[in-house]
Structure formats: C-alpha cells, structure tokens
Input
Amino acid sequence: MAEVMKIEILRYRPETDKEPVWQTFDVPFTREMSLLEALAYIKDELDPTLSYRWSCRMAICGSCGMMVNGIPKLGCKTFLRDYPKGMKVEALANFPIERDLVVDMSDFIEKLESVKPYIINDNPKSLDDGCHTQSPKDMAQYKQFSMCINCGLCYAACPQYGLDKSFTGPAALAILHRYNQDNRDAGKAERMKIVNAEEGAWGCTFVGYCSQVCPKDVDPAAAIQLGKVDSAKDYVIAMFKPGE
Amino acid sequence: MTKRKPYERKMGATWWLKNAFHTKYIIREGSSLVIAIYSMVLLFGLFRLSQGTDAFNGWLGAMSQPAWLAFHLLTLVWTLYHSITWFSLAPKAANLWLGQKRVPDSWIVNSMYGALAGISVVGLVLVLI
Output
C-alpha cells in the first residue's frame, strides 16, 4: 500500500481566478516518484485541468522548472521522498504566471537571443586548413557554460532580475561568456556591448544563488564576475583608443 | 481576442527573509552600512587630529565609551563575516592557470587569508611601534 503525500499547488486559471490560489492534492507515492510523476498522477487521476510544462523527464529539456517550497527546482529531478514534511509547488518565480505552473518565459528567450548565442566568424577556416584544435585549457574556458539547458531556474533565483527585469540575467550572460571564451568565435567585440551595459554584467551584485540552484552545475555567477573582469579591461583599453 | 492574462507576483520588501540564501546575502551586504558609519567616525577622528591634541584626545575619549566600543566590535565581526564570505566567492572571479592546469580554488582562498593576516600584522606593528 503506497503512502499518501499532500502536495499543495498554486493554481491560476486566468479565465476564472483573479489571483492564484492554493489547492491541496493527496498523491500516493513511492520512493522513486518524482514531482513530475506526481503532477502527472494529479492530471490523470484527480484534476485534468492542471497545467504544467514537461518533456524529457531527465533534466535535459529544461521545461519543468518550478518553485518547490520556495526553491527553484526541475520537477523531474525533485523526488517526493526528500520532502517528508510535504511540498508547496508554484510556478517559477520572477516570471509572470500564464496558467498554474506554466510561466511566460518570453523575456528570457529574448535576452538569450540578444547575446548572439552562436559562433560568429566572418572568415571561417577553410576545410583545407584542417580542423580547429583546442587544448583542454581552451575547452575548459567555456565547456561548463555550454551545459546550460535554458530552464530559467537561475532567473527565478536572482533577486536582481526579480527587482529589475531589464537585467540581462544569469543564463544569458553565462551563455554569452561561453561564446566569448570559445577560440573558434570572433564575435566578442559585438557581445561586449551587452556585457558593458548597466543591465549587463554590472547589473549583478554577486548574490550567487543562480549557481547554487542550477540543475546542470553551470556557474553563471562565475561567468558574470569574469564578464566584469573582461568589461573592466575593455573600458581601460577603450580609454587609449579615443574616437572608437 | 486573447484570453491571456499573465499574473505578475510582487516581490515585496521582505523578499530577502523568505529564503535563507537571500537572507545571508543581505547580511553580507548589510555590513556596508556599519562600514560606512565606521569610515565617517574614523574620518571625523582625523579631522579632530588636525585640530590639535586636545581635540583628538576628546575624540579618543568619546571612542572609549561602551556604546562606541560595542559599535566597533559589531563592525569588526560584521566585516569579518563579509570578508569570509567574500574570500569563499573570490575564486569565481579569478580564472588563473599554471600551464594547462587551473589554479585550485583553495590556493586563491588561502592566499587571501594570508594577505589578510600579513596586512593585519603590518597594521599592528605600525600601531604598536
């Protein structure tokens, strides 16, 4: 006989609710059950109107970000057994709630696009020149930042973003740093304009919670601090190149 | 017509009390308040010094009052807390390599503690000579 656990979910149905309301569900659970599976149980067996995003079930699609007891988590990587006192689940913080656990992430997506998250090189090497070589050191400059799955947990963890939505934010700046550090890329000058801006790296006050909550062990706080170092160098160099 | 009606949650003035990590962050940053006051008091001491021995001794006497001693103790403890948390974060802002090997975080943290100890010793020597 499975045990039963109470899961509280912040519901928001825009056609009927003025503001979100808490609703409690009794879910039978086993040791292996993830929060995502619990949500599927609720939707299948208790209330088919519950809305949430999911896809891969294995922490790679980045769809199922939500707040669990006030902490940003992936539903698929959160297990009921770790919450003996129960769970309060709500939509990812710092984003507008679209419906129930679904948020509107378009602001983050726009920021992600703005950092030109792709290799820029107007003069790519010809195939005849052979392959790009990267030493382990070259690769270590960017590899961990390339593990980002765009789940948005770091934005939900960041009070700077919560207080001022113009801040470019942890993931976008980490991905920006990822491409700036890649020695196949030649787009750093374009991206530094974003890093140097008030809402770029300097909008960060090094709270550091983004790196704590990242489900892929990316360290956006480190990327942003290194961005500040780059930005400071950029500023000093620009002083010696007036008119540019 | 759209049926969308996105709901914005407000953070409120107490956002930093709702999460232990954020509370620690505000405590870390809060040290800047006492450090600002401490700096003003110290500057005022320098100003009194420029006015002569009596003025400076008056300031020194005021600083020996229990309330000011307590304030200085609070500033010291709070600043040390800021330093410890800052030292532990410092490796994130440094990307140092020796050849093909990254300088371990512990080296950076330990060297900052070493620098703190060294500067404190120099400060003590200057005061006690």
Notes: The longest strand of chain A covers residues 3-11.
